[in-house]
Design goal:
The structure is a single chain. It is globular, with a radius of gyration of 18 Å. By secondary structure, the protein is α/β, with parallel strands linked by helices. The strands form three sheets. Strands 3-4-7-8-9-10-12-13 form an eight-stranded parallel β-barrel, surrounded by four helices. A three-stranded antiparallel sheet has the order 5-6-11, with no helix packed on it. The protein contains eleven helices and 13 strands. The protein has one domain: TIM Barrel (Alpha-Beta Barrel), CATH 3.20.20. The longest helix has 22 residues. Monomer. Keywords: Cell membrane, Flavoprotein, FMN, Membrane, Oxidoreductase, Pyrimidine biosynthesis. Its EC number is 1.3.5.2.
Length: 335
């Protein structure tokens, strides 16, 4: 209710400014005990972790883990922070975030703007949240793609002891050549290296932290089959389907519809869900799936579930629907 009143005002601001202001308002409301959305406790076990409910926050909203406690008060079953890189980076030039309200869509070309992995760990340590926390890792923009594995290793090692699970993001369209890591020898080398290090860290800390991969919706059938086989081969713990799309179906005739970057929100739902169902068919339950992309209603969360997802994540839908989306999705998925 409160968000529905605030949204028209927020939409008068530049999207990135509105994003920052909203998070600041959430922090203040949480500090004064004004925020706590009651949701059903419907546990789901996935990747060996018990989630209090199947609806999570997707990476990208809280890149630095600076707002974990306030966001957790919205009732999420899990929070994913990041994408984080080894070193701080400013990301792409402004403007880089665009609303398309007519389609309940967003285009972003943020470019992994973040304060670096060390700052994220400081923020995680300072939070009181003791629920399921995913940390999404990436590479710095100025690291050559052929050296990307080293950046992922740095992040994996640093966040390992602070994460419930770790997501390897190789699917953002806003870091040059990043999506090339989704195919061929590059993917094989990345998964093998990270899996080997994960097992070493599990022995070192006497604690196993699952590893998930996040992929794009713009994949051909042969890509989906290849990625699936690699996930099984290296015993990756989970797959997040999907990131944003480079397609423009459903927004091409709207203002901002042809801005460069990744498209998220309602228009990506069908493409993302089709990709999810294709992975589900090939993986046949061997790797758990997390569905994300275009969820703006509880019914769409159920559609992801029916397509093979054990869990779902939301982000862009929150911008248009508000925090009640979390409760609606939980209620719909756990009937």
């Amino acid at each position: 209710m409160l968000y529905s009143l605030a949204r028209p005002l927020l939409f008068t601001l530049a999207p990135e400014r509105a994003h920052e202001l909203t998070l600041s308002m959430l922090d203040k409301a949480h500090k004064f005990g004004l925020m706590h959305q009651k949701v059903a406790h419907k546990p789901v076990t996935c990747m060996g972790i018990e989630f209090p409910n199947p609806v999570g926050l997707a990476a990208g909203l809280d890149k630095n883990g600076a707002h974990i406690d306030a966001l957790a008060a919205l009732g999420f079953g899990f929070i994913e922070i990041g994408t984080i890189t080894p070193r701080p980076q400013a990301g792409n030039p402004l403007p880089r975030l665009f609303r398309i309200p007519e389609a309940k869509a967003i285009i972003n070309r943020m470019g992994f703007n973040n304060d670096g992995v060390d700052k994220l760990i400081e923020n995680v340590k300072a939070s009181k949240f003791r629920g399921v926390l995913g940390i999404n890792i990436g590479k710095n923009a100025d690291t050559p793609v052929e050296d990307a594995v080293s950046d992922y290793l740095i992040c994996l090692e640093k966040v390992y002891n602070y994460a419930s699970y770790i997501t390897v993001n190789i699917s953002s369209p806003n870091t040059k050549n990043l999506r090339s890591l989704q195919s061929g020898d590059a993917l094989t080398e990345l998964l093998q290296t990270l899996k080997d290090r994960q097992l070493e860290l599990a022995e070192q800390y006497n604690h196993y932290v699952p590893l998930a991969l996040k992929v794009a919706p713009d994949l051909e059938s042969e890509d989906i089959r290849f990625i699936s086989m690699q996930l099984i081969k290296f015993k990756i713990d989970g797959l997040i389907v999907t990131n944003t799309t480079l397609g423009r179906e459903g927004v091409e005739n709207f203002h901002n519809g042809n801005e460069a970057g990744g498209l998220s929100g309602a228009p990506v739902f069908e493409k993302s869900t089709k990709c999810l169902s294709q992975f589900a068919e090939i993986l046949a339950g061997k790797i758990p799936l997390i569905g994300v992309g275009g969820i703006v209603s509880g019914e769409q969360a159920v559609a992801k579930q029916q397509a093979g997802a054990s869990l779902v994540q939301v982000y862009s839908g929150l911008i248009y629907t508000g925090p009640t989306l979390v409760k609606d999705c939980i209620d719909a998925m756990t009937v």
